[in-house]
């Protein structure tokens, strides 16, 4: 029977990616990815969550793209395989690292630019003042339109891997 070593994750970067170059000139980028599971405890009824951290490594062109465009907090889809590395540290202690060697990475969040956020906030504030000058019926219509536009996704449909 054939075997399969495949990992698929969607999560947020825990820190900015670390970008390096191998002796052969290939780009290598590493980052940590957080995936969070939330559930309701049956006995207490309270919501609980746990976060799992994953080490992700990308090579060559994918590493260059990740190093240039990803930042701490970015939402990404990663697909690859598990790999375990073992080495002995300077203190003669054996160390083990389990990593995802990614062969596919997709950025799921929209582009974020600081000046865009400021412009959007100013625009929203101006709309809010204009709405307050209008009747209550107009406010309800504007609110519905704002909720409709806010619910749209920031990423293109073909970026969704499933």
TrEMBL record:
The keyword Transmembrane does not apply. It comes from Noviherbaspirillum album. Residues 110-150 are annotated as: Disordered. This is Single-stranded DNA-binding protein. HAMAP family: SSB (MF_00984). Keywords: DNA-binding. InterPro entries: NA-bd_OB-fold (IPR012340), Primosome_PriB/ssb (IPR000424), ssDNA-bd (IPR011344). The lineage of its organism: Bacteria, Pseudomonadati, Pseudomonadota, Betaproteobacteria, Burkholderiales. Residues 53-59 bind DNA. Transmembrane segments: none annotated.
């Amino acid at each position: 029977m054939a075997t399969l070593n495949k990992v698929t994750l969607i999560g947020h970067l825990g820190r900015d990616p670390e970008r390096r170059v191998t002796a052969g000139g290939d780009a290598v980028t590493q980052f940590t990815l957080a995936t969070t599971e939330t559930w309701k405890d049956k006995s207490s009824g309270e919501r609980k969550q746990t976060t799992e951290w994953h080490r992700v490594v990308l090579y060559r062109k994918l590493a260059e793209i990740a190093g240039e465009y990803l930042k701490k907090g970015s939402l990404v889809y990663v697909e690859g395989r598990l790999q375990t590395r073992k080495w002995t540290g300077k203190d003669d202690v054996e160390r083990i690292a389990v990593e995802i060697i990614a062969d596919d990475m997709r950025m799921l969040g929209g582009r974020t630019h600081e000046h865009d956020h400021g412009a959007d906030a100013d625009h929203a504030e101006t709309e809010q003042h204009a709405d307050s000058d209008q009747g209550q019926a107009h406010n309800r219509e504007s609110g519905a339109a704002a909720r409709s536009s806010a619910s749209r996704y920031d990423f293109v449909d073909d970026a969704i891997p499933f």
